[in-house]
Design a protein that fits this description.
single chain, 384 residues, alpha/beta, TIM Barrel, 2 domains, eight-stranded parallel sheet, RNA-binding
Length: 384
RNA sequence: GCUGGAGUCGUCUAGUGGCAAUGACAAGAGACUGUAAAUCUCUCGCGCUUCGCGCUUCGUAGGUUCGAGUCCUACCUCCAGCA
């Protein structure tokens, strides 16, 4: 495929929400977009055909995991990730930066200027991932979008650490860009800086100066970060990102976060939540509920709960997905109780489709310049 | 009928004088945001004012003991072998 080309078609009159298209050669997709996550070159429990039926654009895979197994050489020998996993659509590979957070965050000494030390969870052998190595792996994987190798610090990190970290992430971004050598692959930079205005601005401006094919906002939705901080991180980053490049909010998320992200000018999102929730028996459904603190939260139902045993209605009567069109809550409940994989598959299809339908609804609202009303309505009712 | 073995939370199970009593499953609920997650956490005899207190429990009924699921006696039921 060719490098990604983003075209901005329309910006909402009353917000930063924007409608655009991303083109990869002759494939064109609309944004805002939600990207399903397929860490190990598969969206867990789903075939590529099932994923395709939810109408996604790009899907994700992970550099760190594929580096360990099957190794980038094997993927390259299979003619690249598309051929290997039988996914003809665009693929974005995360750089392994998130694994710096999830696997090395408690061992700060393992995070060095040159790169990050990991211990393989497969056989315990020591591993060392550098910005150059990450990019070289992604070149071999032949994904359509490669991500710069960044440090994804925890939300709880202090200002001093965040500044150090983002400056190192900038040096890593430059090092990665210098060795990037796949002419068909785009390379994105990552903005860090926590919820601090000065740090986000510094990170965004310097990352843009390096020049990438698209920009992402990282370090968000980690740990117990509150939503206000996430929204600040977006607000403090977006103004410094070029309008003609794709904006990607990494690792997000929940339906409310997609709406708030789009409202603030984000184009694409990814999150493990729809597929993980599905494997744990939860379905995203319209409406709101309250969290432990009484704050409004996205609505979901746990189909494992006894109350669904004889509920012969669709998981979400408003949904057009394969699961909701053909199966009942009682049947999904039964499959989950029996630990049949098909239950997880059906809910994965539904949850992914739920977020993609939300994006479709947002695109329609932006197109008609009613996104502000759409957002307010969604925040008040959880419906779209 | 005789001999031997066994009866503990919905199920299986640990327990050999200090026990409301082990573990697993089942059940009830919760968490999950660039996937070390088809995982993890909590509850699971009853009742309370629940970092605690009270009550009732290990087939049934007695007994020994400061104290019994654990020891003794009888009975009931089940299993195996012999008649």
């Amino acid at each position: 495929m060719n490098k990604v080309k983003y075209t901005l078609h329309h910006t909402d009159q009353h917000s930063a929400a924007r409608l655009g298209t991303v083109r990869f050669g002759d494939q064109v997709y609309e944004t805002p977009m939600f990207m399903p996550v397929g860490t190990q070159a598969t969206v867990k429990t789903l075939s590529p055909e099932q994923v395709a039926a939810t109408h996604p654009g790009i899907i994700l895979a992970n550099t760190y995991h594929l580096w360990l197994r099957p190794t980038p050489e094997v993927v390259a020998a299979a003619s690249g990730l598309h051929q290997f996993m039988h996914w003809p659509g665009p693929i974005l590979t995360d750089s392994g930066g998130y694994q710096v957070f999830s696997l090395a965050k408690n061992k700060k000494k393992d995070i060095t200027e040159n790169g990050v030390h990991f211990k393989s969870e497969l056989d315990g052998r020591p591993l060392f991932l550098t910005p150059e190595k990450s990019i070289q792996i992604q070149n071999l994987l032949d994904s359509d979008i490669a991500m710069s190798f960044d440090e994804c610090p925890p939300a709880s990190a202090d200002h001093r650490y965040l500044k150090h970290s983002l400056e190192r992430t900038l040096r890593w971004a430059a090092r990665g860009k210098a060795v990037h050598s796949n002419p068909n692959q785009s390379l994105f930079g990552i903005v860090q800086g926590g919820a601090h205005e000065g740090l986000r601005r510094l990170s965004a401006e310097e990352t843009v100066k390096l020049g990438f094919d698209g920009y992402s906002i990282g370090g968000v939705a980690n740990d117990d970060e509150c939503k206000e901080d996430m929204y600040k991180a977006i607000d403090f980053s977006v103004p410094y990102l070029p309008a003609d490049k794709l904006r990607y909010l990494m690792g997000v998320g929940e339906p409310v976060d997609l709406v708030e992200g789009v409202y603030r000018g984000v184009d694409i999102f990814d999150c493990v939540s729809p597929t993980r929730l599905a494997r744990h028996g939860n379905a995203l459904v319209p409406g709101l509920r309250q969290d432990a603190q009484g704050n409004p939260k996205e609505n979901r139902i746990n189909l494992k709960n006894a109350r669904f045993k004889t509920d012969f209605t669709p998981v979400d009567p408003t949904c057009d997905c394969y699961c909701c069109q053909n199966y009942t809550r009682a049947y999904v409940h039964h499959l989950l109780r029996c630990e049949e994989t098909f239950g997880a598959s059906l809910l994965s299809i539904h949850n992914i489709r739920f977020l993609i339908r939300l994006c479709e609804a947002m695109r329609a609202a932006i197109k008609e310049d009613r996104f502000t009303a759409f957002r307010e309505d969604f925040l008040a009712t959880g419906k779209f």
